[in-house]
TrEMBL record, chains A, B:
Kinase as UniProt keyword: yes
Name this protein carries in UniProt: Putative NBD/HSP70 family sugar kinase
Similarity remark: Belongs to the ROK (NagC/XylR) family.
Taxonomic source organism: Marinomonas pollencensis
UniProt-listed SUPFAM superfamilies: Actin-like ATPase domain (SSF53067), Winged helix' DNA-binding domain (SSF46785)
InterPro entries in the record: ATPase_NBD (IPR043129), ROK (IPR000600), WH-like_DNA-bd_sf (IPR036388), WH_DNA-bd_sf (IPR036390)
Amino acid sequence: MKSSGSTSEQSRIYNERIILQLVRQKPGLSRGYIAQQTGLSAQTISVITGSLLERGLVKVDGKVRGRRGQPSVQLSLNHQGAYGLGINVDRDRISAVLLDFSGHCVLSLEKQVSFPTEQTAKEIALALIADVKARLQEDWVKVQGVGLAKPDYMDAWLDSLVTDAVQRTDLEGLQAELTYWQSDAFESWLSEQTGLPCYKENDAIAAATSELLFGAKTPRKHFFYLFVSIACGGSIVADGECYSGAHGKAGSFGLLPTATGKHGRWILEALSISSLKRFFAGHDLPWPTVAAQWQHPKCQQLVDQWCQEVAFEIQPALSAVIALYDPEAIVIGGRLPSSVLPQLIDAVQTCLAQQSVLPVPDIGPAYADETAVTLGAAVLPLYETFAPQRELLLLASSQTLKP
Amino acid sequence: MKSSGSTSEQSRIYNERIILQLVRQKPGLSRGYIAQQTGLSAQTISVITGSLLERGLVKVDGKVRGRRGQPSVQLSLNHQGAYGLGINVDRDRISAVLLDFSGHCVLSLEKQVSFPTEQTAKEIALALIADVKARLQEDWVKVQGVGLAKPDYMDAWLDSLVTDAVQRTDLEGLQAELTYWQSDAFESWLSEQTGLPCYKENDAIAAATSELLFGAKTPRKHFFYLFVSIACGGSIVADGECYSGAHGKAGSFGLLPTATGKHGRWILEALSISSLKRFFAGHDLPWPTVAAQWQHPKCQQLVDQWCQEVAFEIQPALSAVIALYDPEAIVIGGRLPSSVLPQLIDAVQTCLAQQSVLPVPDIGPAYADETAVTLGAAVLPLYETFAPQRELLLLASSQTLKP
DNA sequence: TTTTTACTAAATCTAATTGATTTAATACTA
DNA sequence: TAGTATTAAATCAATTAGATTTAGTAAAAA
């Protein structure tokens, strides 16, 4: 174990990132305002923004006239200053995106699967890499890395986690094949193919990271991200950073028990798209394939019923989160259809207000829609390279020690 | 909201603290070894240790001969280099200590009460301050501050939290009196009386902080501190720091529901000294007043039964902690009699091993005995002044902004 | 005596601060 | 309306703090 000291170079990098963060949150800032906000001197800001401009990470928008004195120069993020590549491997699909520095999606690929194979994932990845190289040309060097987001336990609960594709019967064989995703072979392969660093997180942490980088003008520092996909999970944001625990498995909300067990013993079986699909099937209603179908009264009513039942199922677990983490807010995101999410939030709010002994924090939707995870994957390299993280200052040097 | 930049002065303070931490954990280190461990240059270490020696925070132990080359100088913490004053207000007693820089208790006071009044607390505090000033003389200036540790909800559960003193009948009047402890009036008063900064935390966080500063040669970075006193609580240590949540209430383990409700609805009623006392009373066994009495077979057997029942009660809550927080270890400490603690740990280990779906982390006792809280209170000012905290670098400057 | 190790002094480098200066706009005034 | 004052933004130049590099010295074992 090493407790690293801090040098001026690390401070500089940190200060650069603090400035980038400010400019990202409020485009069009003047150097003077940045100086105020950071507590650094105007001269320092002048030097650092000069460097950021030179490196193309920041651009000049224009000048603000109308006030006394010299007009201030408005600085903004240069959208084309950096890119992040992201791949999300989920139980029912593999998707990939290229994200620019401002979080805008430049390229996007997706393929439906019933539990992903190594081969399908590699095909998607190769297609993405080829597309990106063709699109960016010499700007390829601005790609900061590849992010990979996948569920923590791809090879578990195969029978209860429904996917759309043809029913597989050879569950044991499938499970064996899926253990591929327990290794880090795919990360290594990605890194090799691209020549770029590869960052891996579980889907919940990836989604929460995108919330941190792009979520709000004044992001919350303490929240719990409740992530709903084919299964579900969670991520704890503490002091403005995702906390991943001693073994990278923190926030495993899905592994808490449900209140009644009606929708499955574990929350990941109850609060999930699988659960909702089973619920539709159990009530003989076809799964909507077009957005408008969600508005149908029968559909609305069924969704409402499901939301209320599930809210009740997860209430004790959410109460535990509130008692243990004392969050400012609970943010719900993931891959639920955008028309279902508000109903779920309503139901959870109502249920918690009735049952909780502790004050209930804000409960609201994540900023990103169903694309949150894939986007989150692409955010990982950008976050790693440009967000002001604690590690930067505390554990930056990584020299090995004498024996 | 302010995102502060980082300057070289902050780096220096941080590096000083990193060095102090190393020297605290492994007394007798050479400058060269410190340089290796921190990744800083030998010269930097020379300068900083020079300053620490001059300020009396570090002392020279001797020289190591026997190896080739010039013998290395052994540096250690100067025990008399700094002091911390601590007061613990609990439901059944008020206690206070003066701690030296190495964590050794210099002075200690205690008074039994049945729920503490403002007046009793002030008496104890004044006595402590007088004693300390008499003892330290001109070294009074080395006292870094006053720490106050108290339960989060002093005025709740009055009926179920047993104390030793005479039964109070006027519960409503008592409760009104106890709301004093919800304010920060006592902190302000302490600060005024001593002219020193006052640091307040709840008892669980204070105990965990002492574990962080004095707990181990190579302290764990991720653990859950389960704190058992008249009631119980918890504290989450993440990345080597106590996490206190958005409103300072994180880790409220006691507010999670029990499995069966047999020992009370909330964990703080079941896993607590109160619960154990009620259990003894319910089985017509007198509460041991001498340490040896705990060894009596009848007593042992009763304690064992209680431990097993309580372990079962808290098992779901501990599983939630493991799933949500993914800790390296669960550390149990607080004010349980030292003979009861190992039995409780055994019971919890056994119960979790049987019930948990996730791998069970290490479960072990805290380093500090029943004095953990009071000690923890006294640690707060030392921790604040000398531990390398994240805040130091990230939020050090606190200038106010223009409107 | 040679080699090795521990440590330090002086010079250098990086980055932030301070104070003066330049630039460009609005506000005031004759 | 022209000219001057005022204000604000930004930069230049000099200074300061702190870490690193380089070149030593001191002390002990081989």
